[in-house]
Amino acid sequence: MADDPKPDAPEASKPGSEAAATPPGEAAAPPPPAPPKPAPKPAAAAPKPPPPPAVMQTAPWESELTASLKEEFGDAITEFSSYLGQNFLVARPGAAIPILQSLKDNHGFDYLVDITAVHWPKRDEQFDLIYVVYSFARNERIRIKVKLKEGDRPETAVDVHLTADWLEREVFDMFGIEFEGHPNMKRILMPDEWQGHPLRKEVSILGMDNNWVQQNLGIESGQ
Amino acid sequence: MSGTFLDSTELVLNMGPQHPSTHGVLRVIVKLDGEKVTGTECVIGYLHRGVEKIGENRTYAMFAPYVDRMDYVAAVSNGLGYCLAVEKLLNVEAPPRAQVVRVILTELNRIASHLLWLGTHALDIGAITPLFYCMREREATLNIFEKYCGARLTTHAFRIGGLQYETYEGFEQECLAFCDMFLPKCDEYEELLTGNRIWVQRLRNVGVLNAEDCKAYGVTGPLLRAAGVKWDLRKAQPYSGYDKYDFEIPTCENGDSFDRYIIRMREMRQSVRIIRQAVADIPAGPIMAKVPKVIKPPVGEVYVSIEAPKGELGYYIVSDGSTQPYRVRVRPPSFVNLQSLDKMARGSLVADLVAVIGTIDIVLGEVDR
User: Fold this and answer.
1) Topology of domain B10-368, per CATH?
2) Which residues, at least 6 apart from B52, have a Cβ–Cβ distance to it below 8 Å?
3) Exposure of A21 in the CB half-sphere (CA atoms within 13 A)
4) Size of interface A-B (CB pairs under 8 A)
């Protein structure tokens, strides 16, 4: 939002200053300054409706790596993008693990930094599952994003990166996304008997699992 | 029940949640064959406060003090990581003066964090004296924090876009005085411990994690460097102007507990080196970048990470264009590093398990968030 008015502002001021510069050369005419003034106003007002672009202003990401991945995975990868200099790709659900494996084996991305998720309840595909991988050799970090529907069971990444064990357990605990083939798919931070998954958007920060709190802590509520 | 009481059988033992060596509420279920550990499982979450959920319900500025309460012994690093992430999202950069002051405070905090580790770890191993020495020197860094921002532990020293406070009168001199005082103290600790036979025997070849395992488990920080991987985010992907300073990344080869001790000792000396260079050249100028009063980053997402005392601390923030983050994910180094405990402890003795837990340098506030 903040970026959009800026490019317009200099444009709007330019016609104004040119218009102001020409009239004094011809004669001392006080009325001319008046007409240019309203001119920039509609110019400034006109671009205002477009500003609500509620999407991430990404740039395309192209490199040797993307070319190689494109060749290997074809349309399983739907998007290569870059935002603020950080590169990420969007993959179809089933493709995440093969991509992680290929990145590890062929491109040196041997360190799985993080797995996390974001809940978008209004979308058809409610969850973004995000893998952050890093390559020591290339000193490069990229993200892999997978869109999941409610009830989807993505394959576990434990076979590729051991560190995925706890990270996936946390995603399950917080979002309720179960990973297929995970050796120990149970809660990690919340108590085992806890109902619900706290980081889902429909779960309020106020009344979480009051039953659990009352039974186990002997207090009225967690608040 | 045939056989005699001499037949060894497997025993499952709960260590913690309250145990002096766990430095917080960590429960380790240990499977024992005699005194040999045949398997462990960590039960965590006792300190879970839902920090990430809180982040979604607070504005960007309001959430900043919360991050201090994750790794509370390295609160300044937590704050720096969060501020850098939001600044990246806003596409602003803190002014040079603010960056240098940030580096000074963060390095002081690294020393404080390592000192607390050294003291308590030595205590776990049975060396009681270093704890008091370490606490004494740590106090000096806390005093600088207190004078600077009023708080000693959960400092909230930085603001999104720079610093809240100008440095106080005599800040530079006090930092330099600390550096002068601290290096001889480092030698003192080393005299007490490095050549100490008991210390060496308790730590050598205990909890070995080689470079390959480190990468597989996503282990970073001193553990990774002890295994011989020369990787530090301050060098690999410099932030806050770390590329301007001349310092080394210490590495060892064995990846055992003793090497981790050596790494942390050397890191403290390197931190002193950085502080000296930074204090010598604090540029004049503003301490805040132009950040709007109401922080409303454009729609987007970033992952920004820094080298915290315990490893890679990352923040993944998703903005939906409103005043509150849509999602804040914290990638905690302690959480990820703790996962390798099972690998390190398998086959060792129970007494070594204590050393291994200590050597990872976990803070449960950060593991559980």
Assistant:
1) Cytochrome-c3 Hydrogenase; chain B (1.10.645)
2) A174, A199, B327, B328, B329, B330, B369
3) 6
4) 104
Task: Give the domain ranges of chain B.
Answer: 10-368
Task: Answer yes or no: do A163 and B216 touch at CB < 8 A.
Answer: yes
Read off the pLDDT of each residue in B233-244 and give the average, rounded to a whole number: 90
pLDDT band at B20 (very low <50, low <70, confident <90, very high): low
Answer yes or no: do A189 and B369 touch at CB < 8 A.
yes
- Residue to mutate among A3, A56, A202, with most B CBs inside 10 A, is A56
CB A208 within 8 A of CB A223: no
- Give the range among A72-76, B58-62, B67-71, B110-114 with minimum mean pLDDT: A72-76
pLDDT per residue over B181-213, tens digit each?
999 998 988 888 888 888 998 888 888 888 889
| Strand order through the sheet with A140-148 | A59-60, A77-83, A86-91, A140-148, A127-135, A111-119
The residue extents of the domains of chain A are 5-45, 59-189
- Report d(CA A100, CA B176) in Å as an integer: 47
> Rounded to whole angstroms, how far apart are CA atoms B57 and B78?
19
A8-55 tens-digit pLDDT: 444 444 444 444 444 444 444 444 444 444 444 444 445 556 555 577
Neighbours of B161 (CB within 10 A): 23
pLDDT tens string B326-369: 999 999 999 999 999 988 888 888 888 888 888 888 888 888 88
Residue A152 C-beta-side C-alpha neighbours within 13 Å: 17
**Partner-chain contact B296 A1, CB within 8 Å:** yes
Of A54, A139, A187, the CB nearest to B321: A54
Strand runs labelled E in B52-174: 158-159, 162-163
Residue whose entry in the numeric block shows the structure tokens 């020409």: A22
Q: Rounded to a whole number, what is the distance in Å from the CA of B1 to chain A's nearest CA?
A: 32
Cα radius of gyration (chain A): 26
* Chain B residues touching chain A at CB-CB below 8 Å: 44-45, 48, 50, 52-54, 56-57, 88-89, 91, 215-219, 229, 231, 236-237, 292, 296, 298-303, 305, 312, 314, 316, 318, 320-321, 326-327, 329, 331, 335-336, 339, 368-369
Contact status, residue B337 vs residue B220, Cβ threshold 8 Å: yes
Min Cα distance B327 → chain A (Å) is 7
Kindly give the residue spans of alpha helices, DSSP state H, lying in chain A. Answer: 5-26, 40-45, 64-73, 96-107, 164-175, 210-217
Supply the CATH classification number for the domain A59-189. Answer: 3.30.460.80
Nearest-angstrom CA–CA distance, A18 and B338: 66
Best B209, B301, B313 member to test A by mutation, with max A CBs in 10 Å, is: B301
